[in-house]
Amino acid sequence: MTRFALIVGSGFQHLGFEVLTRSPTKTPYGEPSSAVLTLAIRDARVPCIARHGESHGLAPHEINYRANLWALEQRDVRVCIGINTVGSIDASWLPGELAVPDQLIDYTHGRDSTFGGAGAPVRHIDFGEPFSPVLRGRIAAAAAECGFAVRGGTYGVTQGPRLETAAEIGRLARDGCAMVGMTAMPEAALARELAIDYAVCAVAVNYAAGRSPDGAALLPQIERFTGSGLLKVRAVLERLVDDGADAM
């Protein structure tokens, strides 16, 4: 049976799942962002890592992405969903709505992005489709069953932790990005190296810089929409469990 796991970013506490156990873990790449948490989702027991730490103390560039994926792989996880809060570049995509990205562009730098090199065999992965099409379809179907609109599109991954300038968002829009976030890379590539099926369920918590139709400030948008958006994510995850996510 396939083990289904989560890596959850900002707003972890808004999901509201009971944490049954916390298993501190060491890997050859150091400690993961958090203990491996066991979440109670319906009747399932789902391994989870809090990407920024349970106290949200890790900036995007400080996250030990390698340790996070390695810790899950050690627990025989073969399917992983990343929960990511993002900014909407398309003004018709409203904060609070969900997306399942199908492509990404990596604008980050200086992150440990492979298990290879430094004496280990170099790993050349096929990354033309960075997210698992089957898993993306399962997430989108679960969202539709819950009655939620869900977008696709390209996820632009920026360095953070600051938000982007309006000019930078203009560049991302010209590059074809529909959303912007800070943590899908190198997470997606590392999952591929470990042959873990990986996809992202993203929730828009703000319009990206310069994209709000009414010019609203960004930080109040994030505060307003994170909680309501992640309640939708919770419903999607419960639907996936009901539909047999552990057998994907």
How does this model look, in words?
By secondary structure, the chain is α/β, with parallel strands linked by helices. It has a single domain (3-247), classed as Nucleoside phosphorylase domain (Rossmann fold, 3-Layer(aba) Sandwich). It is 27% helix and 26% strand. Strands 1, 2, 3, 4, 5, 6, 7, 8, 9, 10 and 11 form an 11-stranded mixed beta sheet that branches. Helix 4 (166-174) links the parallel strand 9 and strand 10 (177-181).
Shape: globular
CATH architecture term: 3-Layer(aba) Sandwich
Top-tier CATH class:
Alpha Beta
What is the name of the CATH superfamily? Answer: Nucleoside phosphorylase domain
Strand runs, count: 11
Biggest sheet architecture:
11 strands, mixed
Poorly predicted runs: none
Structural class: alpha/beta
Strand content: 25-35%
Arithmetic mean pLDDT: 93
Q: How many angstroms does the end-to-end distance come to?
A: 8 Å
